[in-house]
Amino acid sequence: MGTWGVKIFDDDEACDVRDDYRERIITGQTDVEAETGIINEYSEDPEQSFWLPLAITQWKVGRLSELVKKNALASIDRELDSLHEYWKKEAISKRKKELLHARETLCSEMPARKKLKKPFGAWKCPWPLGSVLQYKILYPKDDNPIYNQYVLLQVIGISETKPGKIPYEVIAVRLFNWHSSVSPCDILDEILSNPPELVDFLTRGGTQKETHSIAPLPHMIKENDIKCISKEPLSGADVIAKPVYSPTNSTFEELISRTLLAETDRK
User: Fold this and answer.
1) Contacts of 108-113 spanning 24+ positions with Cβ under 8 A
2) How many other CB atoms are there within 10 angstroms of residue 194's CB atom?
3) pLDDT (tens digit per residue) in 57-79
4) Is 123:215 a contact under the CB 8 Å cutoff?
5) Rounded distance between C-alpha atoms, residue 64 and residue 61, angstroms
6) Global model pTM greater than 0.90
7) Computed over its alpha carbons, how large is the radius of gyration of the chain?
């Protein structure tokens, strides 16, 4: 683990403790579960240095427990008694000031309990494998017959999120050879009675690829009117999961438009 300064969080492990604790709370663990999980994970540290960053993190979000506070204050006292063993001479006074400030903070009135929000980009796929989505094309706008029309996508792969981790999920999709100015939700029976075929995406270089990976951020879901019209494949056939790669949202609509226009020219 690396340390690059005298502040509490100028340390890799301290940052890990802070981030791990916040992540546990955000993903739904109770205060006790999150605290116990951190203690179990970091208690093998012979110096027990995790108590102070955990205490500061809990204090800032209104969740400091007496157990963590007691151990953090003891950790501060131990380090104050042996600063010369851990720090260079020129850093001792600055570190001492940081530790005394931390003690003062932990002994002061704690802020009100805060609800932690998921960070930007966090998203968990609500659609099962094989689901069919509607997607409205909003780019490119000029000289694009597909602009402002709906297309159909099939969810063919979903990235995995480890338990207790904030989800940043990505989906792999396939494209149906279909587009319309009418929302598929309004003509679902018509689509189901005559399901369109899946087609490969056509890249700028003229090559084809079966799938494309995207990360549907909240604003994208809203602006492009992404909705699940069916949680099962239109064909009724079983879907075999495909690999999910790094998402490329920026060129996705251009890729769709190019593919569908090429399919139209081919007919």
Assistant:
1) 110/59, 110/62, 110/64, 111/59, 111/60, 111/61, 111/62, 112/62, 113/61, 113/62, 113/63
2) 8
3) 999 999 999 999 999 999 999 99
4) yes
5) 8
6) no
7) 26
